[in-house]
Specification:
2,3-Dihydroxybiphenyl 1,2-Dioxygenase, domain 1; 4-stranded mixed beta sheet
């Protein structure tokens, strides 16, 4: 019987250098691969069991696409992760402080340099 095993989001990027720095230095991801060492257009990242890929989107479309892109990540200790990310300026979404939601999760939001909204949550 067929079964889905995992998903890997591919996120649009406006400035690959700034975005890589953000995910690696501020969010704790490590680079797994890139398509080109000099000017990467596609990069794979990983933190713990979570993988994501970044892709350069040209012609000025990156911000438009990114601002419509959202990804949710379930985490084991959302309070600890919030504390880790809160230490870095500009990581926590201005409207995404850690709090409990009426739908039963405790969560917070992050905006990456291109405008992708990342939500980190745990069931309350």
């Amino acid at each position: 019987m067929a079964a889905l095993v995992k998903g890997i989001p591919v996120l649009p990027v406006e400035d690959m250098s700034a975005t890589l720095s953000f995910y690696k230095d501020k969010l704790g991801f490590s680079e797994q691969f890139r398509d080109n060492n000099d000017a990467p257009g596609y990069v794979g990242l990983k933190r713990d069991d979570v993988e994501l890929h970044l892709t350069n989107v040209g012609n000025g479309l990156a911000r438009t696409v990114a601002e419509q892109t959202m990804v949710r990540f379930e985490v084991k200790d959302v309070d600890a992760l919030y504390g880790e990310y809160e230490k870095h300026d500009g990581v926590i979404h201005p409207n995404g402080k850690l709090n409990s939601k009426p739908w039963g999760t405790r969560e917070f939001g992050v905006l990456d340099p291109s405008g992708v909204c990342l939500t980190f949550f745990h069931d309350a």
